[in-house]
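pinned: reference chain
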Amino acid sequence: MKKIIPFEISGVHIAIAIFILLGAAFGIYQFNKKPKQVSDIKTAFVITADELYDAFEQNENEASAKYIDKVIEVSGVISEVDRNNEGNMAIVMKAKNALLGGVNAAMGQKDNLKLTIGEDIKLKCMCVGYNMEVILNNCVPVE
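pinned: its structure tokens
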């Protein structure tokens, strides 16, 4: 008695199965991959909060091309300390030419830093955009 197989297994079928398995493995790897820590990435620019804010205020397109998605080290004076929606500290560094705010820096973890308004601070952050103030994420303090 002959076995009935609905289709023949050929090299093409095996290649397709391997391709699907490799694609699934790559997808799982990408999904579980941890993002790089800002502290481990080389700083692209060292700048003050005033200079950074002014760069976006004078020419947003040029500043966006230069700073967005780059790790920058920003120093300035704290004008506000709060917590964002994720519970992380959010710091606003005053820019002298800003009517409100200036540079908004969200810490990358739930730090319990002792920060006071008027204190000088230096942070290493990822610049993510500008919306009436410069927005920085995943910030870590720099000694």
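why pinned: The helical segments are 11-32, 49-58, 60-67. Residues 89 and 111 are 7 Å apart (CA to CA).
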